[in-house]
Amino acid sequence: MLTCLRLKKAQKFINTRQSKARCRVFMLLLTLLWIPGSWAANDAADYQKKLEALKATIEQLKDELNDAKGEKGKLEKQLEKSESDIGNLKNKVDSLNDDINQQDQKLQSLYQEQQDLLRQRQAQQEQVAAQVQSAYRAGPQGPLKMLLNQESPERISRLNKYHDYLLSARSRKLSQYRATLTKLANIEPDIIATRDRLNLRKQQLERQAQQLQAEQKQRSLTLQKLEKLISSKDNRLAAEQDNSERLNALLAEMTATLGSANPSTTRFSLLQGKLPWPTDGKLRHNYGSRRVGNQLSWEGMVIEAPVGTPVHAVHSGRVIFADYLRGHGLLVIIDHGEGFMSLYGHNQSLLKKLGDGVKAGEAIARVGSSGGQHYSGLYFEIRHKGQPTNPNKWLARA
Asked: How far apart are CA 365 and CA 374, in angstroms?
């Protein structure tokens, strides 16, 4: 008996120790799971504060970088306005076209529904008319009349049920017919309103298209004047050096402000040779190739593509610049964390704004020739801690 008690106490002690051990392990797992989440939350909050600080200073920095001096500066400012307006107008035109397509589809659907209802009304009219004629030919078949006619009880019962069935069927047909008439009455105003909205959008589209054409003409004239001023090799070299310094100053400010926080879920440094190409097109200028009379080298690559071709983010991250930068046109810069950034320049229009999160492969812009280019193509760079790095090492083979 004593032995049994000792065994029970020992087993209870063991169970208690195991329970405490399991509890300690569970609490340790909770702590390990909570700490990274807490760190991630703190990192995200810290990054957001840095992004807000960048937003507050980026306009002032952009004004300083784009300060217009002399005739060349004035023409560059005119070019910036024309190309920025073209980008905004193109987005409005695309939005109007999408809305027109949606309204047109809705109108066609309403027309089809109207035709179906008209056919239903015709068929229901014929059915109701046939039932009325049938009821008229049969005449009144009330119970009193059948009793006076000395009908048998069984026949009276059958006729009453048949009479009730006809009345019920006739009532259903009439209800369906009235419902069809109501739908027809309601659909007509909807058709008129949709048709009016469609016509209004088409008028707006025509005005925007005319304005877009005028801006494109103004851009062409400004670009011709600018080309005359920098036609010599020395002037062109100085202009390209200014463009490079302008971009480097912007990136230096961004790198100093944002640091190496990681706004992406996957580390960029692990993706060498795996990134998708930012757009479909032909490689026109490669990284490191010579330019401007062999005085400068390309710090990125130029992918020639038709105007309007979608530009895609090569990796997830956050947009830290989506604006016009002189020499690079409408430019998008995405922070991928670990000090890595990707740059997309000379766009026709931008689809993202500063602070937007993007996923790998998401459309962020459309290919163009902004920044004073004579051909349409995407300028693409990858930078690490502000320094250009060869994109060919990072992009998957085409």
From this structure: 19
